[in-house]
Design goal:
Layout: E1 9-14, E2 19-22, E3 25-28, E4 36-44, E5 57-61, E6 66-70, E7 73-79, E8 83-87
Antiparallel strand pairs: 1-4, 1-7, 2-3, 4-5, 5-8, 6-7
Length: 92
């Protein structure tokens, strides 16, 4: 099954981790009380394609996300304005 978001919606695959270093920034594990989370962009609505690309690593706010479970995987559908930033690795 393919998920095709509409308008400014973005499909995200949440990343659960203990710690990750991205460009010198250490991102700690997600905790229940945190308000921003890390995810990989899996699909984009038409309005989001000018800003993000599939595969981008992003931080997003969990408010208003719609959770989907498809073929054993959990995905989130979020509005573009719920994306806080894109994390880019500057190594190399």
């Amino acid at each position: 099954m393919n998920i095709r978001p509409i308008g400014d919606r973005v499909v995200l695959e949440p990343i659960m981790q203990t710690e990750k270093k991205v460009g010198g920034i250490i991102l700690l594990a997600n905790a229940e009380h945190e308000k921003t989370y890390m995810a990989r962009v899996m699909a984009l609505g038409g309005e989001a394609k000018d800003i993000l690309k599939i595969g981008d690593l992003v931080l997003y706010e969990n408010y208003g996300c719609t959770e989907l479970k498809v073929e054993g995987h959990t995905y989130l559908v979020n509005k573009l304005d719920g994306i806080v930033c894109v994390l880019e690795d500057n190594d190399g």
